[in-house]
């Protein structure tokens, strides 16, 4: 006869244990809960990855826009600075007069309270690109802080400054005419551009 520990369940007449129904149902419920929790975790992880990805893309897009704006601003500033540094303005002579000598006839100021200020300027382009010189882009600033633009009567003066395109290292010279009050002293003359003052020098 075999020892008791060697006897199998059949020989020992051991009946298999029946699992109660409530335990089986609990096992099935735990399996469903596990699947639900797993799906919920995967969903949360997926949403988190999407949020992080979208945030990163938004930052990159914003940075690219900022970079484009900054780059454009830097280019524009450098270009305008180069333009200002590349134009040289010199006053050859200036005087007041109550009458302009024209090619055919003389011209007088609009009123007796005004006088002509004629200024002979020399403009030199020291840049590596062409410069568009416009006689009516000049202004005179007075002692009162007023700004007086070049008068259309500049066209009537002999030896006037004419519109031209200055090549690199090229210069132009000619007269400009301004109508200013007789009692006002002109302080400076400047060339105006799209960016502001291109060049400026004192008159007296």
From TrEMBL:
This is DUF4352 domain-containing protein. Residues 114-192 form the DUF4352 domain. Keywords: Membrane, Signal, Transmembrane, Transmembrane helix. InterPro entries: DUF4352, Immunoprotect_excell_Ig-like. The keyword Membrane applies. The chain crosses the membrane at residues 42-61. Pfam families: DUF4352.
